[in-house]
């Protein structure tokens, strides 16, 4: 399986990082070795001083598809989970300045936190407005709602599948709302999808 991440999908987050508003979805990949499951602790690597949390809605692809039309894209996922796209922002900043790829800052081990539980699309009261948030040490750090995404799930699937075949089990992280900041040793991160707590783990 592969992990596809969408960047710059919430305007306030694009603005907080002083990036340009994209005209089409921006995406990048993480390897399966980046996954951090079962609420295992996250260990800050020794080569970065600034690992940012990015809480994101994650969709799980349930059928093989290439060049998927936006009208049919809803058929390619049934479940939504919660993830964190950990980003070594100091490293990423240097790579961006040099115009180099972001992998070192984005694809490292443990950089893709994923909830053990995914929720069926059918359980959401409003599938167009899915709420999620990240609390750090009991205080809300990031709050999002899928209706704030510039590119919705269907648009993302259509766009990405133009270039990359989607396979069963692939995960798509759909972008983070504003409020990203560095985690530190001892922090407790709790992620909520609607009112369900799906993530609860420590930074070490
Ligand atoms: Zn992200």
CATH H-level superfamily: Fumarylacetoacetase-like, C-terminal domain
Provide the list of bound ligands, each named once. Answer: zinc ion
Largest sheet: 8 strands, mixed
- Identify the CATH class: Alpha Beta
**DSSP summary, beta strand count:** 14
Strand content: 25-35%
Indicate the mean pLDDT.
Answer: 97
Low-confidence stretches: none
Bulk shape: globular
Q: Quote the CATH topology.
A: Fumarylacetoacetate hydrolase, domain 2
Number of helices: 4
Give Rg in angstroms: 16 Å
CATH architecture: Alpha-Beta Complex
End-to-end separation: 27 Å
- Helix-residue proportion: 10-25%
Give a description of the structure.
The chain has helices at 11-16, 89-98, 103-106, 153-163, and strands at residues 3-7, 26-30, 35-36, 51-52, 55-61, 77-85, 87-88, 112-114, 119-120, 131-136, 139-145, 171-173, 188-193, 196-202. The model has no long low-confidence stretch (mean pLDDT 97). The protein has 204 residues and is of the alpha+beta class. The structure holds zinc ion. Residues 5, 7, 54, 56, 85, 173, 175-176 line the site of zinc ion.
Show the helix and strand layout.
Layout: E1 3-7, H1 11-16, E2 26-30, E3 35-36, E4 51-52, E5 55-61, E6 77-85, E7 87-88, H2 89-98, H3 103-106, E8 112-114, E9 119-120, E10 131-136, E11 139-145, H4 153-163, E12 171-173, E13 188-193, E14 196-202
Parallel strand pairs: 1-12, 3-8
Antiparallel strand pairs: 1-2, 4-7, 5-6, 5-12, 6-8, 6-9, 10-11, 10-13, 13-14
The chain binds zinc ion.
